[in-house]
Amino acid sequence: MIELSTLLDLISDRQLQEYVAWLEAHPDSNEEESIAYLMDILNNSQVDILLEKDFKATPYSNWFGACLLPDGRCMETTMGDCRVLGGRFQGPGTSCGGHYTKPLMYQSEDEDDWYDDSYYDPQMATEQAYEGWSEDWVSGFSDDVLNIYIALTGDEDSTQQDADQWYDSLTEEERENILSDTDNSRLNNAIDDIMDNLLSSWDDQFLAERFTAPVGKVFHDPAAARDPRLKNDNPPSSVTQYLQKHPEVANLYDDDDASVMLKGIIIGCLIGALGTIFGNLASEMIMDKFKINPQFKWDQ
Fold first, then answer.
1. pLDDT one-digit tens code per residue, 8-56
2. Is 128 helix (H, G, I), strand (E, B) or coil?
3. How far is residue 133's CA from residue 142's CA, in Å, rounded to a whole number?
4. Which helix (H) or strand (E) holds 88?
5. For the chain, which end, N or C, has fewer CB atoms within 10 Å of the first or last residue's CB respectively?
6. What is the strand order of the sheet 74-78 is part of?
7. Which of 241, 179, 224, 238 minimizes the C-alpha distance to 2?
8. Which residues pair with 64 in a beta bridge?
9. Is the whole model's pTM more than 0.70, yes or no?
10. Nearest-5° Cα angle at 195, 145 to 43
11. 245-292 pLDDT tens trace
């Protein structure tokens, strides 16, 4: 269960003002309703902090899935990287089809005919990356707030929470003005580092792997859904406690029918064997206690 104090420590001054206004409009609200409201107004960065620190879980933005780029190519990225590249994230566990499943091709086209190394243009990739990143920055969905905050303030000891509170207090116009300050060398270097980190892996990935899924085609593969990068195998304790109290929900996540049937057969055999053993022992004890000497027809 998330504590109200945890969320109050996490929200920015602007969000706190919104919460106070909500309390005034809902004087009879309880703690559970307050927590639900605060969870709704958290931004992506705050949710990530909450997941990592309080639940030891992998943030949703770190899950991998298929990303459809503006030029039609499909590649597997995290949700955050896909947004920076200007693509459309197809959801965690999706695949471009190039790893696990033979992709469908257009008419009689061969794989080598469909893919061409010239499709990868480093300059265009950089421009698309910056365009997508800057749009996220201005609209309030950037994941690189701390880097920019340190570049502007020069305070290397700044925390993510300090940066998020500052970022949330800015208007879209103020965020746009920050990026337009091209004379700030520290800011320029910070943005260059962000772009380098984002694109450093794409060069090797584009040149080494051929993602052959047709334009607009995304595969939902079981193999991709089992990718260990998708989630933390240890769920939050609150989830475990909830499932323990609500077995009807836990049953929804049980094994497939074949596995359940096999387990049932094995358990049934074990119960039968134990029943036979203890039944024989009990009958021997009863016969010894009451001096019973049974006579069977085949003994006569």
1. 887 877 788 888 889 989 988 888 888 888 888 877 667 767 766 766 6
2. helix
3. 7
4. strand 88-92
5. C
6. 74-78, 64-68, 88-92
7. 238
8. 78
9. no
10. 30
11. 665 554 444 444 455 566 778 888 888 888 888 888 888 887 777 777
